[in-house]
């Protein structure tokens, strides 16, 4: 969401941010929030992303700024969308506005990282997430699973709740076949308040049973498969055919871009995560290191990235990596 603030005589007189899809943009909401519109002709409007100059779901924001004769416009970033891409700034300057671009550019780029990645790299913003034991495993051995059928939690309850918060903040979540079969996950936000993400499932041979949570049709679900026969497809599930002999991660990015998905959390398992790491298709990694020790099992992915930060969630160590 774009953010906007309007200032007059060093005082904030209006604020706004983008409404849900199809609603008013940040500049519109900020202008409408001003108690005395007559002072707009002496004000400065700040906006994190270039005002649009085209008719879409709403009229051009640049036109509204000009209508109210706001003389000063401060912009964080150029909008990379082909329908904008400098045209909003040109329109404002041509009408006599004083326009500054690139103020707090780094912070605005971080704020709009999902949007920018989608339009500049033609793929969603990709967050890798996993939990590993203190000895480097993300799952126990099959022998251990067989002897103790209940789930093996690596992280504590607070970390698990944080993951549900993250799910509510991103548009989609992706898992591989083994994770789906072994854990029968819901991939929802039941431990947090918010919208459930779109579920993406890799299932080459359509092994996941129809009674599993991921196949219940409660949330938009996309299955990436090699099976083209529609009689094997489940109603209310979207199926996308990909070539499993090619670069799988790149094909997945293309599918998600086609579905207008701006961000995705890759939750595993190890093979799925490693495929995105190997193809260098990731932006962030969020890695929990818990106290349990497995001794043997499925090793955690191998990754190199800039350590951005780390924190402790009770007994868990949470490490954030960036792919610069």
TrEMBL record:
Catalytic activity: 5-amino-6-(5-phospho-D-ribitylamino)uracil + NADP(+) = 5-amino-6-(5-phospho-D-ribosylamino)uracil + NADPH + H(+); 2,5-diamino-6-hydroxy-4-(5-phosphoribosylamino)-pyrimidine + H2O + H(+) = 5-amino-6-(5-phospho-D-ribosylamino)uracil + NH4(+)
Keywords: Hydrolase, Metal-binding, Multifunctional enzyme, NADP, Oxidoreductase, Riboflavin biosynthesis, Zinc
Keyword Metal-binding: yes
Active site residues per record: 27 (proton donor)
Domain of life: Bacteria
GO molecular function: 5-amino-6-(5-phosphoribosylamino)uracil reductase activity; diaminohydroxyphosphoribosylaminopyrimidine deaminase activity; zinc ion binding
Cofactor: Zn(2+)
Residues the entry annotates as binding NADP(+): 131, 153, 179, 269-275
Pathway named in the protein's UniProt entry: Cofactor biosynthesis; riboflavin biosynthesis; 5-amino-6-(D-ribitylamino)uracil from GTP: step 3/4; Cofactor biosynthesis; riboflavin biosynthesis; 5-amino-6-(D-ribitylamino)uracil from GTP: step 2/4
Metal-binding found in the keyword field: yes
GO BP terms, alphabetized: riboflavin biosynthetic process
EC number, as in UniProt: 3.5.4.26, 1.1.1.193
Pfam families: dCMP_cyt_deam_1 (PF00383), RibD_C (PF01872)
Family note: In the N-terminal section; belongs to the cytidine and deoxycytidylate deaminase family.
General function of this protein: Converts 2,5-diamino-6-(ribosylamino)-4(3h)-pyrimidinone 5'-phosphate into 5-amino-6-(ribosylamino)-2,4(1h,3h)-pyrimidinedione 5'-phosphate.
Protein name in the entry: Riboflavin biosynthesis protein RibD
Organism: Arenibacter nanhaiticus
Taxon lineage: Bacteria, Pseudomonadati, Bacteroidota, Flavobacteriia, Flavobacteriales
